[in-house]
Design the sequence.
């Protein structure tokens, strides 16, 4: 069994959970290997997601579930990867030659307190120009399962 840190100071209260949900509020271009910064933070229990850097830093140790959903603009494609402490954990493809394209993927992973997880463009595997739709269709979320 993995030890779980069951408490986190959160303001004046003790937080025993971690969860976040963030969306893109503006359409985005992609740079090679650049981190995608989901700027519209809707939920951030435990304050683990940092929209300014695009990084989720685990406030508690345990098993986490992450979900990524992307919508590309018409005639645009992209491949992104979920990274854990600099190591590729999963990939996701979204795109369509004629219409808006969608892609989604999920990962389950054990994290230690302080581990970092983020979404970044996978090398040069993306269209040029404005690739990702910014109308709240693109999201990155995660939560502590146990």
Sequence:
């Amino acid at each position: 069994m993995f030890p779980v840190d069951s408490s986190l100071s959160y303001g004046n209260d003790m937080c025993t959970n971690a969860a976040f949900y963030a969306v893109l509020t503006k359409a985005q271009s992609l740079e090679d290997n650049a981190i995608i910064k989901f700027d519209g933070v809707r939920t951030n229990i435990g304050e683990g997601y940092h929209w300014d850097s695009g990084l989720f830093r685990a406030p508690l140790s345990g098993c986490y579930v992450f979900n990524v959903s992307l919508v590309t603009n018409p005639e645009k494609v992209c491949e992104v990867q979920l990274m854990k402490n600099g190591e590729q954990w999963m990939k996701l493809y979204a795109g369509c030659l004629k219409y808006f394209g969608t892609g989604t993927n999920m990962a389950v992973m054990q994290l230690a307190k302080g581990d970092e997880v983020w979404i970044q463009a996978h090398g040069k595997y993306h269209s040029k120009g404005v690739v990702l739709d910014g109308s709240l269709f693109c999201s990155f979320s995660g939560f502590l399962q146990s």
About this structure: The radius of gyration is 16 Å.
